[in-house]
Design a protein that fits this description.
heterodimer, A: 68 residues, mainly beta, Ubiquitin-like (UB roll), five-stranded mixed beta sheet, 10% helix, 35% strand, B: 140 residues, alpha/beta, Cytidine Deaminase, domain 2, 3 helices, 8 strands
C-alpha cells in the first residue's frame, strides 16, 4: 500500500503499524518524535499498534523545545 | 554543514524575538538543501508554548500546520530557531538534551549584548551519541 510520509509517496506492506513505520523509516531518536496520521496525533507512537491504511498521510515531528 | 539565511528571513526571526522580549521566542526555518548545505529563505514565527524567559516549546499542532504550509509552498523545513534574551547564542544544557533531530539546524539568537548574535548548531551523529557542533552560518 502507498502512504505519504512527510509528503512523499512511499510503498509499504499492507497493514503496517505506526511503530513499524517508525522502524522502517529509520527515524532517529524516535522517543523524541510525535506522529500525526491524517492530522491526528498518535498516542505513544513508539509502541503504537495502530494500523495504517492506503493513502494515509503520516508526519514525524521532533520535539522542539529547550531551556536553561 | 554550511548554512545561509537571507536578510529577510533573518529580519523576520529578529523582529519576532524582539517583539517577544522579555520572553524567549521561537519558530521554524525553511528553504532548500543545496550543495551539501542549507539555504534558509523563510523564518516562521510560532508561539512559545512555555511563555518563559528561560524556556521555549513549540506546540506540535502549530508545528504540524507550519510544516504542511511550508511544504505546500515548495519549501523544505530545515530546523528551528529560538532566542536567548539574556544569555549567549549557545545551546543550554537543556537544549543539548532535547535537540534530537539529526536533520535539523538549531538556530539560536542572542539578544544579551548590544548587537544580536545568531548562531546555528546541529547534531553530528558521526562524532558520537548526542554530539553537537556549531554550523557555519552566513547572512546573505
Amino acid at each position: 500500500m502507498d502512504l505519504f510520509v512527510a509528503g512523499e509517496r512511499k510503498s509499504f506492506g499492507d497493514g503496517i503499524t505506526v511503530a513499524e513505520l517508525l522502524a522502517l523509516e529509520n527515524v532517529a531518536n524516535p522517543e523524541y518524535v510525535t506522529v500525526a496520521v491524517n492530522d491526528e496525533f498518535v498516542d505513544s507512537p513508539l509502541g503504537s499498534e495502530r494500523p495504517l491504511a492506503e493513502g494515509d498521510r503520516v508526519e514525524f515531528l521532533y520535539f522542539m523545545g529547550g531551556g536553561i | 554543514m554550511r548554512i545561509s539565511i537571507t536578510r529577510e528571513a533573518y529580519g523576520t526571526l529578529l523582529g519576532w524575538a524582539r517583539q517577544n522580549l522579555p520572553l524567549e521566542a521561537c519558530g521554524l526555518v525553511a528553504g532548500r538543501l543545496a550543495d551539501g548545505g542549507k539555504e534558509i529563505t523563510r523564518a516562521v514565527p510560532l508561539a512559545n508554548a512555555q511563555a518563559s524567559r528561560e524556556r521555549f516549546g513549540i506546540d506540535p499542532r502549530e508545528q504540524l500546520a507550519a510544516v504542511k504550509a511550508l511544504r505546500s509552498e515548495g519549501l523544505a523545513p530545515l530546523g528551528n530557531f529560538h532566542s536567548h534574551p539574556e544569555t549567549p547564542a549557545r545551546p543550554s544544557g537543556e537544549d543539548l538534551k532535547l535537540f534530537r533531530d539529526p536533520a535539523a539546524s538549531y538556530l539560536i539568537l542572542s539578544l544579551a549584548g548590544p548587537e544580536p548574535v545568531l548562531k546555528a548548531f546541529g547534531l553530528t551523529p558521526s562524532a558520537g551519541e548526542g554530539a553537537f557542533a556549531e554550523e557555519e552560518l552566513e547572512i546573505i
